[in-house]
């Protein structure tokens, strides 16, 4: 096969842990359970935020989008991963790989930016509470979400074709579970310094810049919290902001490690497990974090459950 066009023909083989079938069987069970819990948890957050009028606020508008992103993020890759883990067939078509890479990069970029938008929402709520609903009006909320989606998709439209069009000289074995950018770049049979440089520059805009904005926002929030006299007020702010900071730490820690050094191969197994972590564990934990630490969500769940029970009794 000619090295100039091998990246646009045939199938890819996702190696994963194919040399350790016992580990793949364990991972299949764990990932299947985690995926089902992720579907239930994030769908619950979306339904509760939409059905309970008390949660029709900017914060839960953004949380709904975060849960939708997590559902899309996992569903774009986990079914294929489970199929590969459950049998000897480890192949994925070129088209399937391209779609998976595009969705992975696009949705990941959107989530980075959405977390920054959520930090701004918390900044306005804590630092400018009297003007919160005026500043965070529906038009601005929709505009911020649209901007996050637009930038994330634009990033993927740039990086996905560049990664897939790298000459691979007939090599089709991906040493990973998924068609992920670092693994595909490592397959190239040419110097990848240029594309790694472009990936780093885009990562600064999509990953690091939002992270810096989040840290600055929380610096102002912390200063405002320390000036609050009421202990109950401080506790409420710490609950809502603590949930968001926990999610930010889980998501950004893995993303920075993976994508700020796309061509390195210091530990391939570590990279695979980190991919599983932010593709499965983070979307699984997000609804738990926001539910267990948030009295408003727990109250909304209680009202919906009790409302359904009372309506059944009337019938």
TrEMBL record:
Matching Gene3D superfamilies: Rhodopsin 7-helix transmembrane proteins
Pfam families, alphabetized: 7tm_4 (PF13853)
Listed PROSITE patterns: G_PROTEIN_RECEP_F1_1, G_PROTEIN_RECEP_F1_2
Keyword terms of this UniProt record: Cell membrane, G-protein coupled receptor, Membrane, Olfaction, Receptor, Sensory transduction, Transducer, Transmembrane, Transmembrane helix
Physiological role: Putative odorant or sperm cell receptor.
Keyword Mitochondrion found: no
Top-rank taxon, per record: Eukaryota
Topology versus the membrane: Multi-pass membrane protein
Name of the molecule in the record: Olfactory receptor
GO molecular function, one term: G protein-coupled receptor activity
Main location: membrane
Subcellular location: Cell membrane
InterPro entries to which the protein is assigned, alphabetical: GPCR_Rhodpsn, GPCR_Rhodpsn_7TM, Olfact_rcpt
Record field: transmembrane: 26-48, 60-78, 98-120, 140-158, 197-221, 242-260, 272-292
Originating species: Panthera leo (Lion)
A single GO cellular-component term on record: plasma membrane
Family, per entry: Belongs to the G-protein coupled receptor 1 family.
The G-protein coupled receptors family 1 profile domain, residue ranges: 41-290
């Amino acid at each position: 096969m000619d090295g100039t066009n091998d990246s646009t023909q045939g199938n890819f083989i996702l190696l994963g842990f194919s040399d350790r079938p016992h580990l793949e069987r364990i991972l299949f069970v764990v990932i299947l359970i985690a995926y089902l819990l992720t579907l239930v948890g994030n769908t619950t957050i979306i339904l509760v935020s939409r059905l309970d009028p008390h949660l029709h606020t900017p914060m839960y508008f953004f949380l709904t989008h975060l849960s939708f992103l997590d559902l899309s993020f996992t569903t774009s890759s986990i079914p294929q991963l489970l199929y590969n883990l459950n049998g000897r067939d480890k192949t994925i078509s070129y088209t399937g790989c391209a779609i998976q890479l595009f969705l992975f990069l696009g949705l990941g970029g959107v989530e980075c930016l959405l977390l920054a938008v959520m930090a701004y929402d918390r900044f306005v709520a804590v630092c400018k509470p009297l003007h919160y609903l005026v500043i965070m009006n529906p038009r601005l909320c929709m505009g911020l979400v649209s901007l996050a989606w637009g930038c994330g998709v634009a990033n993927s439209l740039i990086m996905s074709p560049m990664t897939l069009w790298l000459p691979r000289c007939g090599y089709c074995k991906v040493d990973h579970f998924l068609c992920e950018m670092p693994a595909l770049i490592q397959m190239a049979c040419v110097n990848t310094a240029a594309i790694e440089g472009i990936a780093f520059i885009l990562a600064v805009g999509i990953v690091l810049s939002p992270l810096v904005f989040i840290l600055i926002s929380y610096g102002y929030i912390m200063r405002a919290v320390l000036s609050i006299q009421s202990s109950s007020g401080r506790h409420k702010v710490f609950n809502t902001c603590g949930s968001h900071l926990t999610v930010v730490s889980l998501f950004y820690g893995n993303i920075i490690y993976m994508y700020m050094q796309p061509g390195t191969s210091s530990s391939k197994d570590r990279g695979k497990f980190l991919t599983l972590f932010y593709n499965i564990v983070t979307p699984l934990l997000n609804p738990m974090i926001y539910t267990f630490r948030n009295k408003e969500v727990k109250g909304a769940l209680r009202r919906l459950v009790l409302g359904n029970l009372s309506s059944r009794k009337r019938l």
